[in-house]
Amino acid sequence: MTWHFTEDPAVFRAAAGALLSAEPARNTGLLTLMDTAGRLGWWTEPGGRVTGVLVVAAPGQPTFGTVTPEAACALASLPDPFGDEGVAVLRGETAAVEAFAEATGRPWTATARMRLFRLGTLTPPDPAPTGRARVATAADTPLAAAWAREFVRDIGEEPGEDYTGHVTERISDGRLLLWEEDEGDGRPVSMASFSPVAEGHSRVHFVYTPPAARGRGYAAGVTTAATRAARDAGAAQVLLFTDLANPTSNALYRRLGYRPVTDHLTVAFTGR
Hints:
four-stranded antiparallel sheet
């Protein structure tokens, strides 16, 4: 049983493609990041079967895909599995992340607890919220970038300086939707995006409603629209993550037809 590493996505796909195709939901974060990653890893069982994968998209910040606690402990025993940067932040399924963190013997703190959901039968809100969904345009970029920053803050992470690039890519691809209110000038009141289809799945994310517009069903409306758009783009499975500390969003997505898959954990290491 061995960990292998590469910086070449093509080599990684050749080794781990069967696992990624078999379990796209559990590997959704890795599938989103792998083509721009600096380092990719896979765990092989006796006989060469790949049963674990990881990606390092930013120095010192690996993300686990499908990884067993046993494989996570084996990774922690390697001298320098993530190069000179080591690991400062780790994300992945809760059991594997906890196993790795404990095996390192280093102090660590849980910074986010998330739940991955997969769509069962889409159940649009009834009654529907007032207003309508539309695809965002280039003119919406400043607003969407500001909302993306607030979304990151809301989920408990430290926001970056500028999210223009993040939203520009989504707007250019037609993957960012806004919900407009009926009254007044039809201003946007909520947004949601979806990822490119990979291995038959897409993930709804950046679901954000500013505080003054909450409680009116806009998030349900725009999430439903983004879900439909992801399916129209060819996704057989539509996924999303929720913050376990936010009971409102967890209840909302269940009402829309999303069902839990697995829990995820982000930890920050506080010492060497």
